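Lay summary

Proteins are chains of building blocks that fold into shapes. Our project writes down both the chain and a compact code for its shape. Here are two examples, one after the other.
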Amino acid sequence: MADPAGCCRPCATCLLCLYSCQWITAKKEKRKGLRTTKCDCSWFLFLFLTFLFTLVWLYFTIIILNDFHNFNEFIFKQRKLWLDWSLVLLIATAVLITYSATLLVLALCLQLCGQPLKLHWLHKTLLIFTALVVAAAFTGLGIKWAEEWRSAHISLQATGPFLHIGAVGGMTLLAWPLASFIYRTRSTGLRVSLLLVYCAVMIALYLAPLAITSPCIMEEKQLPPKPALVGHRGAPMLAPENTLMSLQKAVDCDVQVFETDVMVSADGVPFLMHDEELTRTTNVQAVFPERAALNSTAFNWTDLQQLDAGSWFLERRPFPTVQSLSASDRREVAKQRIPSLQQALEAAKQSNISIMFDLRPENHSDYQSFINATLEAILESGIPLQQVLWLPDGFREQVRQQAPGLQQVYGRKRLQNEEELLLHVNLPYQDMSSEEIRQYRQDNVSVNLYVVNQPWLFSVLWCSGVSSVTTNACQVLKEMKRPIWLLPSSTYLMIWIVTDSVSLLAILWAFVLLKYWLFSLSVPPESETDVLLTKINSLMQE
């Protein structure tokens, strides 16, 4: 078959070389016997499915970036190695998706040029490797980080309408190489099968918006108030977590609540610390190397005051924002020490923000004494009790009796027929649906969800009506004046209809145009001699 017009032989030859890893000339007489076999078609199908598989993993990678700091902390606890693994994941995923996408584009171009799809064994090996790597990544995600599947489900509320448009556009472009293959193949059964599959997929995509739901499909006037911000350990992207500097940076971000974690020293002083060990956020390995692996509660307050709680922030750079710190901020970071709960309460009182904390470790044998020491620090600080949000579940009734003014926050949902009235709940964002958030809001129950860092997630929860969110990125969410997108249902319906209509017309045009194009190529052009003889014959008749 002749090469289609516009597909020059040098271009077709280059495409063949890249796809087949060998110099196969695009001239028909030089590649006699080289045809696309059923095996070649199977490998093309495998290439297409691998590309889709990798594309889905790329989507998951972008979604789980919201929670990736937790993964970095987990790896540090296991290996004592700090690295921003999100960067490694993004680079690896980008390499895989670029490779599979490049091969797919080459294959589609070869099909349009009427060239054989002879995939080289090296590409076959790398494709299998790509599929196995992505499969292993999904398996690991399901085993070690199963809650991210729920994160992906929530993300569809933010991306569903746009994924629909992208999928329709991609499948519409696929109509051109598909039409070329259908018109060239001699197998009627294969033609019918491909057409049926393609039509079924397109019909499913055209009707997909019937299953797409998003709280952000609403009128502007229905939008709930912007959720309040709760600083997760302060402002950990701008200052070392659980320090007075982090608290002050959170205040500058207009957060309403400073969220932290409290432990109690060996001599009974409550202090701010998240990890059970001090190795991640202090220089304990340099000051007390023989005691570095001990629980934080094994140190007395005098020992804790000797530790540097800021320099690690500049050395390990837990967030990319560390690089943009000013010189004055860097000097302030180096001065940070572990603050006591008393100091944090006084700072919160002066800044007029609330403080919410959990008391760790819950399974400690002296946990009741930890409760007593913490309550004593709260009562001695003079902070208004309504500014303190109490999270620990242990000995809650005792806490109510000793400090009835504390706001009790629960880390669970309401139970059926529950007599106790829950006014505040604090849950992972994966644990509440948009419908539940709306119901709690109607019942005047304050809902705080954690940890929310990405604007797309904040937008979905904003549209759902959540009361507040705990975040590492208060400086980002502070600047958001409205959700990323907000569409009235009538506007979304119009976008849906226009997208599907344009797609259908483009598909019909592709099949009609390619039919006439290939038909014109099959008619041999008249030779110059025939044209000359025709003109001579015409002149003689005159």
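And here is the second example, written the same way.
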Amino acid sequence: FKGGDTCEYLLSSGRFLGEKVWQPHSCMMHKYKNSEAKNCLIDKHVVFIGDSRIRQLFYSFIKLINPQVKEEGIKHGNIPFEDKSASIKVDFLWYPEVNGSMRQRIKSWTEGSVAKPHIIVVGAATWSIKIHNGSNEALAQYKINITSIAPLLEKLAISSDVYWVLQDPVYEDMLSESRKMITNEKIDAYNEAAVRILNSSSRNSKAKVKVFSVSKLIAQETIMKSVDGLHLPESSRDTNAMILMNVYCNKIMKPIDGSCCQPQPPLTLIQKIAFCFFTLSIIGYLIISLIHRNNYRKNKSCTDLESGEEKKPAISTPNVSTLEMLLHCFCKLGLIMTYFYLCDRANLFMKENKFYTHSSFFIPIVYILVLGVFYTENTKETKVLNREQTDEWKGWMQLVILIYHISGASTFLPVYMHIRVLVAAYLFQTGYGHFSYFWIKGDFGVYRVCQVLFRLNFLVVVLCIVMDRPYQFYYFVPLVTVWFMIIYATLAVWPQIVQKKANGNCLWHFGLLLKLICLLTCIYFLSYSQGAFEKIFSFWPLSKCFELNGNVYEWWFRWKLDRYVVFHGMLFAFIYLALQKHQMISEGKGDPLFSNRVSNVLLFVSIVSFLTYSIWASSCKNKTECNELHPSVSVVQILAFILIRNIPGYVRSVYSSFFAWFGKISLELFICQYHIWLAADTKGILVLIPGYPMFNVLVSTFIFVCVAHEISQITNDLAQIVVPKDNSTLLKRLLCIAGFFSGLHFFSAMQDQSRH
């Protein structure tokens, strides 16, 4: 990283991703909506000064504020525009030559108490070349005129944003006879003169005129599509206008996916405290390690020189203490969190926008599937959805979701709908797994609940502190956490019905079904009563967890999108365990799940159902309508997959160890991708090695996977310490955790007060 200002990169360099998507060098460009543009430019006055090319830029700019504007103004005259709702004024002033008239207009803004425009965009040269037939005398006069205007522009730049637009190249073959003298050689000479004069003048000035040179690069790629060889096609003009909007508005609006021109956010009070905590943990661990090393050296076995026998130490090497393990975990976690912060909060590494192509999504999918099949092993047990199989399922789904995110495939609706099924399948496993545990074990103790909640939420809580993000931002963890608590509450409330009790009396099965029907009724009611749902989660302290941007709508949308699938998972677990108990299915190695005839029929129905859902998802035309149907129909493909994967005995008896390895750290992979694989909170891509996209993905992926694996181990180690089995010790730890969150809330309130 060269350490330059990202604004300079935005104004001067970049490349096209595909045909229309412009990628600035080193940073991400936000696509401003009309409402955002108005909020940024409220009470602002913008002026465009120049020739017909600047007039084009003016129209593209005001269309970002009001798309209904038509290009009907006087061609060779001033054109005003005003948006009264936001008090925005944008004027185009017709000054096709850099001459005394232009100088006089600019000078008028520097004198007295005249209101100065907030943004000034200036540029002209092609008229001078055309009128004077490309003479050298005209170029010399152009230099004199810019030299006289430069100090005035610098004076304005103290209080306003001033941009000098360099001249775009022309497509000489398409120019009319009256414009043949406008050559790229002449344009380059005029641009070189403007840059040299403005740069030399700004060295002695407090403020700097920003040179808008990126339009040259854009024009070089698109001028061939020009209608007359001189004026840019509309898509290129729109890109230039969007760049201008990013340069001015990013520092005001601070969009997540607009890293260009955004200053590094200041450290919050909580982040400073976290930094001190991790620093002290690292120092403490180093001190303890040095003490243990010295003790080990003192007590190390040594050879008696006289007898030649080895003497044993009087004291054996002590086991690792709880404090040392705790400090060791926080030491590693501190280093990892530093990497997180540097990747996605400090302006240290580059970030780029995503750009979707079919090849960028499907080629990696094929590659990982081949790898997964290559690492095939026999399972330890052949039950339906055994541990190896569920880990494998989580693993390949997580890898597909990661590829989906980095390739930007959410813009392709058929892929989006299939990924929604994969997310639903995770929640299905949540319902299946937790129901099975409580039903078989009957363990509703606090220890089990605390262990699950800690493992699910530890990483997210740390990231909320270090990355200054709300809990709901990592939406999947709150979703899984709430559904776990719903499953627990459903089965733990009186009467507690478990398998052991139900085996003694079949009526208990109907009691459990009644509980599940009550749960389904509550889900149905909340899904169609947004007001009731929002009231429940708007109460403190739930509001602190589930609010995003000041409301809980995002949380309601996420919950509603997969509202039935956890219930489906619980119901499937109940039916499967009942069939297993009554020996109605065969789970022997190599045996089909049912009789040959039934297995063949179910397998055929499953394959047809699986393909039918895929055809429906691929034919989706409207995301909103498909999302409405998704909660009810996603279970079709999930159940079809389970049956296809488990009915044939030989398929049920093998699994992919490659996918299963990733499945064991799937939660950490899903959360870590936000900041150290993707960038700008998943909106872009992290660039560690610029200029080599494939090599960059390989390096960043290797680090990302290693970090996720390490965090998984840290979480498991800390879970044993923070959540002990002894009830009295656990109670003390829970009081400490309650104190921690109380302190966190107190400091958060202080932060909010200081921000306001």
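What can we say about the second shape? The chain has three domains: 6-253, 349-723, 726-755.
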